[in-house]
């Protein structure tokens, strides 16, 4: 269990992306700053929204917000 736990922790710590799902009733616009926090590690990430797009899947249309990625 400890070995697998350490392995999983290394995987999580090496990620360089943050995806936030299931935000409802929140209107955001380009330039707004969004912040995500990992509750276990306490790490937080903030970035400005730089574009919006629509996605269609399974008969459902949803609005997606995107932030600039490190290049």
Task: Characterise this structure.
With 71 residues, the chain is of the alpha+beta class. 18% of the residues lie in helices and 38% in strands. It is built from one helix and three strands, in the order αβββ. Strands 1-2-3 form a three-stranded antiparallel beta sheet, with no helix packed on it. Strand 2 and strand 3 form a beta hairpin. It is extended. It starts with a helix and ends with a strand. 0% of the residues are buried.
Give a summary of the structure in a few sentences.
The protein has one helix at 2-14, and strands at 33-37, 44-57, 60-67. With 71 residues, the chain is α+β, with helices and mostly antiparallel strands.
- CA radius of gyration is 15 Å
SSE order in H/E notation?
Answer: HEEE
Strand-pairing-aware structural class: alpha+beta
- Extended strand count: 3
Percentage of residues in helical conformation: 10-25%
Sequence stretches where pLDDT stays below 50 over 5 or more residues: none
Dominant shape? extended
Determine the number of helices (DSSP H or I, runs of at least 4 residues).
1
Q: What's the mean pLDDT score? A: 81
| Straight-line N-to-C gap | 37 Å
Largest sheet: 3 strands, antiparallel
Percent of residues in beta strands: 35-45%
